[in-house]
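Hi V.,

You were right to ask for the full record rather than a summary. Here it is.
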Amino acid sequence: MPTSGGSIRLFRIAGIEVFLHWSWFLVAIYEVQQWRAIFSSPVWAAVLYLGLFVLVTMHEFGHALACRQTGGQAEKIFLWPLGGIAFVSPPPRPGPMLWSIAAGPLVNVLLVPILAFAQSAAARAGWVNTNVDAYLVITWLRRINLGLLIFNLLPIYPLDGGQILRSLLWFPFGQIRSLFIATAIGFAGGVALLLGAIWWQSFWIGFMAFFLLSRAGMGWKQARYLQAEETEMTRVAAPEPELPEKKAVL
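Predicted structure:
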């Protein structure tokens, strides 16, 4: 089980390596302690947290496999306490970019009826009374999946919603200007999230806000770099191709 940069290599599927940061285990212990109050045993709390891990992993594979489908590259998925990041490089066109980003939330959309059916089947089987812990795990996974879907679709770059917005803006505004607009909206959304963290006194929301602001800043710098490249190409009277981008998709 080799490590890389503080991360443990878990497995490899379809040429895509999955890494887990060591801090995930610390947060897992904390979260299991928080969740154990609603279960008869902490084992069920651990099962729920592992279920969340599976949901996030499936979401990231949605990004990676869709990118591969467009002819792009996707070789690594990184999992950590705040979720996951799929490192993808789709062809530098709005269509492939849009599909690569949208495929992640689409996985959660497909899971909505599946988990709803599982919860309904468990209720009909009488698990509400005979197997309460298992029923609670299914119920909470359904809620968590829906929460992940809604949060990821917020138009805050670099969340999926923000990157979907950027891909749609690419059609009328082009590669560079669309990135400037999306990251500017991402900054505003990150600040709003930070204010919300202060209001709700939530450490995790605040941490997420700082992470999103940092990634939005990286997106803005990337836009400036692409703009400089475009200016240089124009100066030497070269053709103006679409410039490749490497994406870290949440």
